[in-house]
Amino acid sequence: MTYRIGETHDSKWRSWVDSANDSQTDFPIQNLPFGVFRPGRIGVAIGNQILDLQRCPLPIETAQACSSKSLNQLLALTPAHWSELRLWLSRALRADATDWRENRSRLSEFLVPMNAVEMQVPAEIGDYTDFYASIDHATNVGRLFRPDHPLLPNYKYVPIAYHGRTSSIVISGAPIHRPNGQIKTSAMDAPVFGPSRSLDYELEVAFFIGGGNTLGEPVPIQSAESRIFGLCLLNDWSARDIQSWEYQPLGPFLAKSFATSISPWVVTLEALAPFRTAAYQQSSTLPHLESGENSKQGAIDLILEVLIQSKQICMRLSRTNTKNLYWTMAQMVTHHTSNGCNLLSGDLLATGTVSGPADDERGCLLELTRNGAEPIRLPNGETRSFLEDGDEIILRGYCEREGFVRIGFGECRGTISAARLR
């Protein structure tokens, strides 16, 4: 299933919410992402405002779901319900609709300024799976540790992933405490326990599962996208020194489970319809992961940026695009369920670090600094091999295409604080 470009994507539409008409806003009327603000109210971002859906006279099929304290009930509905709600919101917020004056007077009292609320994790996340979908990231990391054979032989057949920890998923802005763990360098005879010295970020995109699948029933790739509600930004914080000691033979554990940050706004898959593009040209895909539609427009032309803020210095570290991903979202869903695993509404799947072929498209410090061997120099003269206490990492994402209005994802922020010692 792929959403068609329609009425809600019309670039001529303007909103009676003036801030939504700013060319630089992430949240024009063509976007309308969903989020949850305290104390547990579902809202839609429009300009610099939030429309409180709990108070709106919504279509009866979605009104009850939007009165919940999380997005889970809405996610459990069907793509038809999601589209109906999006269309209703678009028409209600449109400036030149025939009844716009009535809409404005009726709905304006349900607007809340974004800067007056605290956002929270938008869904009750039952499970979290993080993939390894960027072939450039996998190759760059492989070259650091296996220069002669950087890409493992299964990479082009298997969408590799690990099972993450849901309890430590936090909303943008939550502090990130430097983790403690076992560390062993090549010069040590035995590991030591202490704060990570090689703390890193990972620039990722995540997507929320809508209607799940029954245990034992795989999701075919032709219908995989019907199980995807929308996307957000994700930072998979990683302690590289802890990871290098613990990852063999079973992969990441404490090096990643201490914190994962996500952005508060979930951009619907339908809003992204104008920005779909061809998937990465694959060479070894098995038949159950292939479809003509997925090949033609399985990827998203989503520009991603990561910035570091340190002592009043803000510097962009990299800029990349999700269209570089080797595996698509549909392939991730299909592979995840191919053994009969049941995904549930509210589950979160992530892409893994998004990198591109150029040096300035690398999505983590492990790649950018060649595992610390080539530190980055900041404009104030400081250098970074890995993150220091007080550093803030800012992820941003947006889509733009001629003939359509630019839509954004907002920001995903996290500031490093010192380790909590026993």
What would you note in describing this structure?
The protein is an alpha+beta fold and 422 residues long. The protein folds into two domains: 114 residues, Fumarylacetoacetase, N-terminal domain (SH3 type barrels, Roll), CATH 2.30.30.230; 290 residues, Fumarylacetoacetate hydrolase, domain 2 (Alpha-Beta Complex). The protein is built from nine helices and 26 strands. Strands 6, 7, 8, 13, 14, 16, 17 and 22 form an eight-stranded mixed sheet that branches. The protein has a five-stranded antiparallel sheet with strand order 4-3-2-1-5, with no helix packed on it. Strand 10 and strand 11 form a beta hairpin. It is globular, with a radius of gyration of 21 Å. The mean pLDDT is 95.
Q: What characteristic shape results from the CA principal axes?
A: globular
Q: What is the architecture of the largest domain at the second tier of CATH?
A: Alpha-Beta Complex
Radius of gyration: 21 Å
Unreliable stretches: none
DSSP summary, beta strand count = 26
Oligomer: single chain
Q: How many H/I helical runs?
A: 9
Question: How are the SSEs placed, and which strands pair?
Answer:
Layout lengths: L33 E4 L3 E6 L2 E4 L7 H7 L5 H4 L3 H15 L6 H8 L3 E3 L5 E2 L7 E4 L3 H11 L15 E3 L5 E3 L4 E2 L2 E4 L8 E4 L3 E2 L2 E7 L18 E8 L2 E2 H7 L13 E3 L4 E2 L7 E2 L14 H6 L1 E2 L2 E8 L2 E9 L7 H9 L10 E3 L14 H4 L7 E2 L5 E2 L7 E8 L7 E11 L5
Parallel strand pairs: 6-22, 8-16, 9-26
Antiparallel strand pairs: 1-2, 1-5, 2-3, 3-4, 6-7, 10-11, 12-15, 13-14, 13-22, 14-16, 14-17, 18-19, 20-21, 20-25, 23-24, 25-26
